[in-house]
Amino acid sequence: MLWLQNFDVSALTSVAGLAPNASLLGNDLKESALIDQWIHLAESELDGNTTVISNLLDGSLSPYNKSIHTTFTERERRVLKTLNDHLATRTFFVGERITLADIYVASQVRRAATVTFDAAARAEFNHLTRHLETIINQPKLKDIYEPNEFVEKALQYVSSAREKKSATSLLKAEKKTQPSENDEEEPDVPSRS
Questions:
Q1: Cα distances (Å, whole numbers) of residue 193 to 39, 190
Q2: What's the pLDDT at 149?
Q3: pTM value?
Q4: Given its phi and psi angles, is residue 154 left (phi above 0), alpha (psi -120 to 50 degrees) or beta?
Q5: Which of 27, 41, 80, 186 has its CA 20 to 30 A from that of 13?
Q6: Is the pLDDT at 59 greater than 70, yes or no?
Q7: Per-residue pLDDT averaged across 108-116, rounded?
Q8: Distance (Å, whole) CA 109 – CA 111
């Protein structure tokens, strides 16, 4: 994972403020507000959904539920589309230079590329992919990002052998406990004979 992922957004903003000439926080109040907007969208929507999907897949959030997985995948795709559409007519999220928004969004997209942002998604969201490549290949930023190991196909849930065995055992136990049509029901109270 990226080292950026370990920092709180407010900590990143404070560090970015140490280099005022870099314009990472924008050149005016409007740009600063837009930068915050993109950072918080990536933090709450992209990171949040990617984290839930990742936790479902690795068993941290258990038991696995296909409908929850589908819901969070759809939510993640919705935010990826929003980001992609914004970048269709521009190189960077705010203004004509790299800002903290670009660095943070790229870090979250890079994380998603290790879980769900597979080759098909990278082709579909081509503007976002271009943006990611632009940011992670900047000479001053290249060392921040780990080597890029994108998934070719989105990770999928694979139940463990123990879960499969447990499910099979439960099915067998249910079949044994269900009365057959020929069995008479036994009374709940013993009869007096």
A1: 79, 9
A2: 83
A3: 0.74
A4: beta
A5: 80
A6: yes
A7: 94
A8: 5
